[in-house]
Amino acid sequence: MDHYTQVEQTVKEVLAKQSKMDVANIKSDALLAEDLRMDSFGALETAFELEEKFAIQIPNEALASVKTVKDIVDYIAEQTQEKPST
Amino acid sequence: MRKPRVVITGLGIIASNGVGTEAFWQANKKGISGTDALTRFDPRGIDCTVASEVNDFDPVQFMPKDVAKRVDRFVHFGLACTHMALADSKLDLNKEDKRRVGSIIGSGLGGLLFHEEQMMLAYEKDTLRLNPICVPRITPNAVSSHIAIQYGVLGPNIVISTACASGAHGVGEAFRKIQCGEMGVCISGGVEAPLTPFTFAAYSNLRVVSRRNDAPKEASRPFDLNRDGFVLGEGGAVLILEELEHALQRNAPIYAEVIGYASNSGGHHIVMPDPDGADASRAMSDAVKDAGISVNDIDYINAHATSTGANDRCETKAIKTVFDKRAYDIPVSSTKSMIGHTIGAAGAIEAAVCALAIKDQFVPPTINYKDKDPDCDLDYVPGVGRTANLSTVLSNSFGFGNCNACLIFSKFKE
Fold this sequence. Notes:
By secondary structure, chain A is mainly α. Helix content of chain A is 58%, strand content 0%. Helix content of chain B is 34%, strand content 19%.
């Protein structure tokens, strides 16, 4: 499994738990607020959990800019990509 | 201009001896204790192991699952009591001007359970990376705000924290605001969920709770010679207070009328009552004056009666100061003998008891009263409740820090 797919799987698992949906029903183009009924507290809780799982920090600006499941996966995949050693 | 009259049109009660008004009232009439050995957590190292727990309560019966998941237990009690009280009042909020409906609730301690859980987790994990929604779960105003959010009410949204008198102040201040025309209806009351390890230990170490661990159902024994402190309990009550004209217009059920309220301080000590009961007697007298009645009109007193040596002695003294020789003819009973001391909920639950006593013309008993204390020599309705002609009744609440509130209720007459 490549890095992006791994991130996608974990993000979808976290979102499924938060929105009480089946992982299979979390589509990449799903809108967080409309399709997953995520409110502001839900967003905070999700961000908190993703930060723990991926050992990253998600700043407010990033949190405010994500609209879809794919947006989150793209952001985290980029933040956690292994950097080539110099 | 004459002040609007205020009536009680709905009740919602949760206590250790009954969830729901009917279950609670029947248990109170029969003198059934809700106190028992603590089961909520391991009381390791705590001298007191008696508590008054609400065990047959499922929050999701009264609120959406998502809300239940994100609020502390004291808010569960507030939302559940509101749900029951509104249904009981038959008030259709969709037909109301919601700007004229308020939410005023007493809570002495706020969201302690969640607070403690997070503190313990922080120490266990050695990190202050706390749950991101700690603040709105812990803050005391969560209860009145969640009620306002769930029911869309837009009037005054206030939490009052006056320790053991919080619930009485919740009802009293709602009464005043309706009298002053600030709103027409108020979801008023008090809630508390103090059965958490740290809080339980803190009350125990203050040496104000009973250590009668071998006989937990007899631990709360107000006015009894061998009383040794109160039993910490949880629960809540919501009373729908309503301007009389509004209640009559919609043909609402009316339990009783709220006719008097007084609030004061003893300015004496952060946990001890004034030994002469001067502030307590002044609060009672002022409530009688506020009601525009005479002390001779009081037919029953629902006492603060915590089962501590000092409170019950001082309260008895204060009742004698106010009522003189007639003090011996007035039935005085203690709800706390059955459900323990529910701190911020107590005054509201006891206000509800007064409304039910008037409606049912019945004085509930003080249970576990066995041996007479020479300093406590009134008619405490020991063991068995009784029918009585109740026109006007008084409810006393005297909180730590000398936060006092007295309420007077009467049988509704047009």
